[in-house]
């Protein structure tokens, strides 16, 4: 075990944040968990996190407010923290632009102010998709290279990470972890909540989206939530070695062709036809499919165009956790879990599903 | 034993005299006679044991001595020791323990020594008889569980007659497991009656035979088979074959490796092992599409019934039989039933379906709504032929469009060439519909029409006439266009492509054509099949972007 430290975790009830909190408390660290609501911290396996009272202190806060909205007593505790792990973010797509700005950009600014004020080293959880819409290899040392960003979420995360880099240039000790698309646990495929890519898979497998613009050699990088939490925790514990680094916490990408081949292994699943974006016309879709496309699929379709690979040289050199073996076998585990949990495999609803539910603003999955 | 020691030694002397001089063998008598079974027509099985380091041949020498068939096998001490060691290693996973290995070990351990008693005892001492009984008992019990679980699945799927047969197989395996624990380890079930006589439990013996006799009575009638299954499961549990409660919900439907589903239009195709294509009729397709992997078999059956196919059991059983799905028992892995000392279990392959024409742009022909029909083409050729059919149709439409343009402008020679292109494309579609792939050269298409059934051959004359037509005036052009239209219509009727959209009529029909093309290309790409056009490969395998247009 590393020397016990006190760690402030924002977004501690989010998918990654909860697992990081669990790992830190299990390793003997004391966690100050910033929570937007008074709910429990639920682990990825759906069980409530149990930790000794001394190891876990819940702080009621809001990252969108200065000082994270903490009261004076909590702020005094924060001042004594050894690390801040900033997981809080809105990661759902299709939300109002202002929400991304408030939570992801202003929230990061507020966290940076707190960190700078007390000279607390910061572990910032970003996203690998700050790379934007491009092909080829995205390196860990790249940030703003004029890339075209896929959506408001990516724009907000790039802006937030840029703020973090500026703070680092001004002397704040910082390390950045960039997960790709955070999905179920590596071994079981289990996931606490079906967000980000999951609704897309649901629409496709139920045949509600039959024609999707995309390239069969586009790559989706799916990374297990447990691996991401392991890397974030490790960076926190071995901050001296990680300081200044940006680490891609990524898996092994699956191409759309592999994705489609794996879907075909499930008798009940429909397999969408991916058509060249240049040939695709949402207006030509049947009315019901067009509705689904506009409400859900269009938010994610840029991920079906990118032929991107994430270089993870820094992570491989730093982390003692092996890069998860992804690919079709991992995808099958994810889908099997979806079937087991009843998320997939049910009869299609008669009417379009509602837009993705509002996410808590104190933490969620990364995409 | 049915033969005396003296008779056996005499048979051995005579047998050895026919063999070339060899080492000083130790010899045992193996098999049914050594076990105390046998009859006058039983083989005499001698095993010769040497201390050679080299492997001795496995193939027996066959002799006929005094009217008896004599088999002589040889094994070195090391080979026998290796057999026992392999048996111990495999004992932890009885499902993977080779029946042949178990049989060889049993036959030696149960053998009667004739020569070299000290060496025989030494080798037999390498594995305790009690340990072998445990291993053999576990091996039979494992098989009994598989058979009984499989029977339970078939019972759940209303395949009563087949279920009864598997119950009976499981019953034999269960009682063999029990008998092995009492020293009756001889594998061949032929002598089961004598084994049960010797086992010293007349109650077990009598109950077994009563249940065995009841199998016939239960055949084919659902409630009777279910009752029979229930009774046999209870008996098996009493015999020590635990882990098979009558709870079909513990059976789950699981993914079979390398089985994929591809739908084109309404036709569902299931591709097994990237090689065999099964075309499913409407009802079979609906049942297949209702399958949710990982769910309990009764739930899967109920969901299939909810599609409107009340008698879905036989369809689900066919999927299982053909290896398109797999059954697992919760906590115990895949259910792999095997009859006692029979061929290894595995998927059945039905005879290929013989429809003609075989293919349409929407997929393979089927025998009827319940068809689970094996397409008589390897998957790759199926896919290539169907893609060629689709693209032929596209080219026909394209050429006819070009013909109209050429005629409007009085470009007579262009019109002639374009019409020929349309005829060739239509013929390519026709050949493809019958599964011909790769296709003959365009110049050879008409000559190769005799490859096809008579209905298709009838197009020979019309095709020849059209290919020879010249145009020098508008009226001739109109006639050519009309005859070409008739010809294409006939080809489409013959090839079953009448539902194909006229690709250039509107943006919608063009889109429908493209979608169909994408679907077939996708299957072809999955199979790494030859695509009819390089451009088509580009659409799927590369970025899909039109090269001269921004995405």
TrEMBL record, chain A:
It comes from Streptomyces monashensis. One of its GO terms (molecular function) is aldehyde dehydrogenase (NAD+) activity. Residues 10-231 form the Thioester reductase (TE) domain. InterPro entries: FAR_NAD-bd, NAD(P)-bd_dom_sf, NAD(P)-dependent_oxidoreduct. GO terms for cellular component: cytoplasm. This is Thioester reductase (TE) domain-containing protein.
UniProtKB/TrEMBL annotation, chain B:
InterPro entries: NT_sf (IPR043519). It comes from the Bacteria. This is DNA polymerase III subunit beta. It comes from Streptomyces monashensis.
